[in-house]
Amino acid sequence: MRPLRRTRQNGGVKLLVAAHASELAAFEADIPGFERLLTGVGKIPAASALTRALCQGEYDEIVVVGTAGAIDDAVEGGIYDIAGAIQHDVKGLDGTFGEHVSLPPRVDTGHDGLVIATGDHFVDDAQTVALIRGLGARLVDMESYALIWVAQQFGVPIRILRAVSDRAQDGATELWDVVVERCSHQLRDEFRTRYGV
Q: What's the farthest any 2 CA atoms get from each other in the chain?
């Protein structure tokens, strides 16, 4: 059952979403046609914050920006659309890695792009990367699956743009702190190209 939402009087509003404030460092506080939502890092904060926002207002589209780690050597730095998300920190009742006991194995945005693996821990070692790569993902993050799933429950279109911040290998935690501002500027440029604001 879909939660009730208050309809906005002005219409045509999109929701700009990021998990961490540093991912929005290059974005102005006020962007015409957009409201801003900072969710916090991880699946539960992301799901909770987006659910509250969608219960309170009507949006034409959710546009998520942020960073991701690359787990495929063929994925270079840059900005990528996310086509779908899986979870890398769950197991099914039979112990199958990447399957949740009740949620779908994969959720999709409806856009062409890469598959991302979402989990509630920061991936920064080669052994974990190898396991996750086996699920078919090429990037990793901590929110995309939750955000897509919530958007689907409300029937709101969602687009996720991820900037590659690291190779998701040993030392990636330290690298993220250094490159996130550069990634934010790349995301802002891509956002301006796509949305004209």
A: 51
